[in-house]
Design brief:
CATH class of the largest domain: Alpha Beta
CATH superfamily of the largest domain: Phosphoenolpyruvate-binding domains
Number of helices: 11
Structural class: alpha/beta
Distance between the termini: 67 Å
CATH topology of the largest domain: TIM Barrel
CATH architecture of the largest domain: Alpha-Beta Barrel
Order of helices and strands: HEHEHHEHEHEHEHEEHHH
Strand content: 5-15%
Strand order of the largest sheet: 1-2-3-4-5-6-7-8
Radius of gyration: 24 Å
Amino acid sequence: MSGVPAAPAARFTIADLAARARQRVPIVMATAYDFVSGSAADAAGVDLVLVGDSAATVMLGLATTRDVSLDEMLMLARAVRRGVSRALVVGDLPFGTYEASDAQAVETAKRFAGIGCDLVKMEGAGSTADRARAVIAAGIPVMGHVGLRPQQLLAGEPARVPVRTADAALELIADARALESAGCVAIVLEAVPAAVAERLVARVRVPVIGIGAGGATAGQVLVTYDLLGLTEGHLPRFVKQYASLKREMIGAIERYAGDVRERRFPEPRHTYGMDAAELSELDRRLGAGG
């Protein structure tokens, strides 16, 4: 009926995540780092909003994702959570906050859950599968991450496709299956050949969300700053840019600076007025004071 507000979209759940994969309905995940980007992603209808440690490089200007602190990630996650009402919010556990022991992993995950994250993401398999199992046992859902692992890259080290041989592909599939056995509700698969991704997806039951892993995965994730054209420098080949906001931002600020320097801003419509009688009284008192 015209004039009747649309009902708010139902909250996306982890059960919906599994159902989408079974029904072969593509899952959409995007990163967010603050209230504005979180609310924009939510309004756009994405299914999952990842508070990614990619914030380290694309937002905070750090050299690698290893350099972002737990407190910084928690601050960003709080802001994103305030802006998201429908999508699942995924907290990315930063480097050095979960690897040492099950207890460390559980404590870090609890801090993200305590500020409203619906699940947490952890990179790697091996001992990370054990950490994931402990976090899940503590009642916090976990998303795994295999393939390229940005937290393992040092400053200046190029990101390379980690799977180029049959042996590496078999190890990757074993890692994904280990995360599934640990109880992970989904797995991010980053920067692997599409043919390998297709074979991996066929061998796990949980949703696999790809980034640079081809189209056979249950869904896709991109860094929002990359897709919006806010990131400077080289972009991975798997990035598709949907806007050029950095250029638009620079242009807008240049126009503002020009208006200020040429005294075109502010105009009268950008200023506040004052009651004439009060202004006269002000001038009288200023004059009386000398």
